[in-house]
Amino acid sequence: MSTSNSTPLPKALGHIRVLDLSRVLAGPWCSQNLADLGADVIKIERPGSGDDTRAWGPPYAKDAVGRDTSEAAYYLSANRGKRSVTVDIASPEGQALVRELARHADVVLENFKVGQLKRYGLDYESLKAVKPDIVYCSITGFGQDGPYAHRAGYDFLIQGMGGLMSVTGERDELPGGGPQKVGVALTDLMTGMYATVAVLAALTHRDRTGEGQYIDMALLDTQVAMLANVGSNYLNSGKPPKRWGNAHPNIVPYQTFACADGHIIVAAGNDGQYQKFVEAGGRRELALDPRFATNPMRVKNRDTLVPLLAEMVRERRRDEWIAMLEAVGVPCGPINDVGEVFDNPQVRSRGIEIEVPHAAAGTVKLVRSPMKMSATPATSDKAPPMLGEHTDEVLSEMLGKDEAEIAALRGKGVV
C-alpha cells in the first residue's frame, strides 16, 4: 500500500530493532507481529539446525518442480518478515556476538528455561549493562518464580492445567464426551499476542521516560487470564464450569445443529433472534411457549428445547437454512474445513492469502497479518528466512565485521 505519489507509507515500528532468541511458537508469534508492524527482527538460530519448527514436517514448502524444500510449513507460519542469523550462543564468542547485537537493539525476546541465559551472560541484567534502556521479554511455561518456575511448559500441558480442556469437548453424559484440546496451539498464540502488547507498552514507556524494563510472560498466566467469562463465572459462583461441547452455558440456542446434509451454527443472542429462528423453521409455537420465551427460561429448559430445535433443523438442507436465517437477521453460518475457509469469498476479498518470493521455493503461500491500518499498514511481503540467510549481512551492517572476520567465526563454528 502506498500514497498517491508512490511514496511508501511509514512503518509503525520502522524505528525498532528486535533481537529474537525465541523459537517454536509463542515467542516467534510475538516477533512476527512486530515484524509485520515494521520492526527489524533479527532471529538468532542455532547453526546447522535452527528453530526446531524448521523440521516439523511434512508438509514442507515445495520448489518450482514440486520437490520438498527444507522449510516446514509450521516454521513458515510464524516467521515471516525476519532476518535469520546463526550464532552458537553456547560458545563464549557467540555470547559476545549476541551482547554486541543487543547493544544495537531495542527489544530482546527469549523463551529459554528459567536461568539458562544467565549462565551465558545473556539474561536481562547482563544485557541491561550494555544497553540500559533495553526492553527484555522472557516467555516460559510458568513464569520466573513460583513452585513450577523450573518446569518445562508446553501448550498441550497448559491447556490441561489451565482449565481450557475442562470446558472444551462434549458434555460427559453425551457420546464422545470428555476433555479435548483446542485444534491449534491457542495458549502459545495468545501468549505471543499478550507479549506483543506488553512489548509495545514497554516501548511507549521507554520513549516517554528513557527507562527499559523486564517482561515476564508465562503460558499458564495467559491461559488462566483468557478463561474470560468462564473464569469469571467460577469466581462469582464458586462452581467450576463444565464442558458444553458446541453449546453455550449462558445462551440458548447458541450451538451447532445437524441439517439434512451437513451442519450449521445458530447464534441467537437475544429473544428476537430466537423467535425469528423458530418462525423461519415453521415452529412459531416454540416462540410462544412460556418455557422458551426468554433466554433465562431457554437456558433452564435447554434439555427440552434443544431436541425440538434439532428435529426442526434436520428437515432442511444447510444452504437453505443459511439463506433463510440471513434473510431475517439470525446469526448463522457453516462449519468450514480449512480448504473451504481459504475459498470463502469474504476471505478472498480481504486478501488474507498471499504469495511472496522465497529463496528456495521460488514463492510460498502465507497468511497476511490481520492488522489493517490506514496510515502505517502492516506488511507481510517478506518470506520467512532461510537458516542463516542474513548472517553476513547483519554482522557486517550492525557490527562492522569484514569478510575475513566473518569467515573466521564461521570456521570456528561460532556462526
Automatic annotation (TrEMBL):
Keyword Transferase in annotation: yes
Keyword Transferase (UniProt): yes
UniProt entry keywords in alphabetical sequence: Transferase
InterPro entries: CoA-transferase_III_domain (IPR050483), CoA-Trfase_fam_III (IPR003673), CoA-Trfase_III_dom3_sf (IPR044855), CoA-Trfase_III_dom_1_sf (IPR023606)
GO molecular function, one term: transferase activity
Name of the protein: CoA transferase
Source organism (scientific name): Massilia terrae
Classification of source organism: Bacteria, Pseudomonadati, Pseudomonadota, Betaproteobacteria, Burkholderiales
